[in-house]
Design a protein that fits this description.
The protein is of the alpha/beta class. The protein is built from 15 helices and 14 strands. Helix 9 runs parallel beside helix 12. It binds iron/sulfur cluster.
Length: 378
C-alpha cells in the first residue's frame, strides 16, 4: 500500500510540470488493479447478463460481448466496435480479458503443434493441436500439473500445482484458434491434456458450457470429449450437467494391474468404475470411449484383451488402444506393432469397435507435460 501511495504522490508532484502527468495520476487512482476486475471470460451468459447491468449496460449487450470474446476471438475491449466508446471504457475499468501468454510453440513434422502457455503465476500448461484428415482436434489442459500420480504419465510425476480457472481453460481454445489460418477447421476438443478434469469440476463444467453454448464458441457437444482417470462420483454428476462425450482412461482390466498403474483405482476399483459407466446417462447414439495405453509385459497379453472384452460387455463402448509414449526416466515401453494388432483382433472378435491410435508429434516434446516440465525445471 505504501508503495502505491508514494507512486501516486510522485505523479501528483509531476503534474505541476506536465498536464499529461495529471491524467496519468488520475488513471492510476481510479483504475482497479487487475486482480480486482471481473474475469469476464470466466462467466456464463446469465452471469454476464446480470453483471453488465451492474455497470449500466443493457442485458442484450452480454451476448454481443460474448460474441466478440468467443467467436471474434477479441483480445481487447477496444475491438468491440458495436459498443459505444463509453461502454468499452467502462468495460476496461471494471473487467479483465485474460489472455494466456504463449511461451513456445513446437511444430512436428506430421503437423502436430504443441503450444506452451505461461500462466500469470509463472506456471506452464500445454495444449496440443492435432491435424486429422479434414479437421483439427485440440487437446487442452484443466490443471497445472496433476495429483493423480499415474505411473506412465509425466505430468503425474511433476505433481499438482493448481486448478485452472474457467477462463484459462477456455482461453487455450481461443488462443490456438487465433494462431490458425482457418480457425473454423478446429472442430474437435478433448480435455485430455495436463490434469484430471473432474478434479477441477466446477471450473471445467463452466468452461465446457462456454465452449458448447450457442452464444459461446458453439462447438458441437458430440465433438467435445472429457477424459477421466475414474473419479466415480463426478462421472455421474458430469453426465447430468453436460452432454459432451465421456472417455475413461482404463489401461487395465484387473484391479491388481490397475492399482499398479493408477493409484485412483484404490479409491474406485474397477467394479465401482464399471458400475458408474453402466449408469452414465449416455445421450442417444453415443458410446463411452475407453482408452487403453498398451505397455509391454504389463497389460498387453491375450488374456488382458479377453478380460477387457468381458469387463466392457453390455456397455456401449469403443476402445482406443494407444502405444505407451516413452519418456526419460520411465521404466516401461510400448509393445511391438504385431502385439498391438493381436490385442486389437481379440477385441474385434468380441464385436468391439477398436482403433489403434498412434501418438502424433513424436519428434517434438510429445509426451503430455514434457514441454511444461522442461520449462518448470528452468
Ligand atoms: S494420466 Fe491424466 S490423471 Fe493420470 S497423472 Fe497424468 S494427467 Fe493426471
Amino acid at each position: 500500500m505504501s508503495a502505491v501511495v508514494s507512486l501516486q504522490t510522485k505523479k501528483t508532484f509531476l503534474c505541476v510540470l506536465c498536464v499529461s502527468a495529471v491524467k496519468t495520476s488520475f488513471e492510476s487512482v481510479t483504475d482497479k488493479p487487475f486482480f480486482m476486475k471481473i474475469d469476464i471470460k470466466g462467466m456464463d451468459l446469465e452471469e454476464t447478463r446480470q453483471w453488465v447491468g451492474t455497470i449500466g449496460l443493457e442485458s442484450y449487450r452480454a451476448a454481443q460481448i460474448r460474441q466478440w470474446i468467443f467467436k471474434g476471438l477479441a483480445v481487447s475491449f477496444q475491438e468491440m466496435t458495436n459498443l459505444s466508446k463509453a461502454a468499452r471504457h467502462n468495460l476496461e475499468q471494471e473487467a479483465q480479458l485474460q489472455v494466456l501468454e504463449e511461451a513456445e510453440v513446437q511444430v512436428s513434422r506430421d503437423g502436430t503443434r504443441k503450444h506452451l502457455f505461461r500462466l500469470h503465476d509463472g506456471s506452464f500448461i500445454e495444449a496440443v493441436l492435432i491435424p486429422e484428415r479434414d479437421h483439427f482436434t485440440l487437446c487442452i489442459s484443466s490443471q497445472s500439473g496433476c495429483s493423480m500420480g499415474c505411473r506412465f504419465c509425466l505430468t503425474g510425476k511433476q505433481g499438482f500445482k493448481r486448478n485452472l480457472t474457467p477462463s484459462e481453460i477456455a482461453d487455450q481454445v481461443i488462443q490456438v484458434r487465433r494462431s490458425m489460418e482457418d480457425p473454423d477447421r478446429l472442430t474437435n476438443l478433448v480435455l485430455m491434456g495436463m490434469g484430471e478434469p473432474l478434479a477441477n469440476y466446477a471450473a471445467v463444467i463452466k468452461a465446457i458450457r462456454n465452449i458448447v453454448d450457442l452464444e459461446g464458441m458453439n462447438f458441437s457437444n458430440r465433438k467435445v470429449t472429457l477424459s477421466t482417470c475414474g473419479l466415480v462420483p463426478e462421472i455421474l454428476r458430469f453426465g447430468n450437467d453436460v452432454t459432451v462425450n465421456l472417455a475413461v482412461s482404463l489401461n487395465a482390466a484387473d484391479n491388481e494391474t490397475r492399482d499398479f498403474l493408477m493409484p485412483i483405482n484404490h479409491a474406485y476399483p474397477l467394479e465401482t468404475l464399471m458400475a458408474a459407466c453402466r449408469e452414465f446417462p449416455l445421450p442417444h447414439g453415443r458410446r463411452i470411449t475407453f482408452e487403453y495405453i498398451l505397455i509391454k509385459g504389463v497389460n498387453d497379453r491375450d488374456e488382458d484383451a479377453i478380460r477387457l472384452a468381458k469387463l466392457l460387455t453390455g456397455i456401449k463402448a469403443k476402445v482406443n488402444l494407444i502405444p505407451l509414449n516413452p519418456h526419460q526416466g520411465l521404466d516401461m515401453s510400448p509393445p511391438t506393432e504385431e502385439r498391438m494388432v493381436a490385442f486389437q483382433e481379440i477385441l474385434i472378435q468380441h464385436r468391439f469397435t477398436v482403433m489403434i491410435r498412434k501418438s502424433k508429434g513424436r519428434d517434438i516434446s510429445a509426451a503430455c507435460g514434457q514441454l511444461a516440465g522442461k520449462r518448470a525445471e528452468g
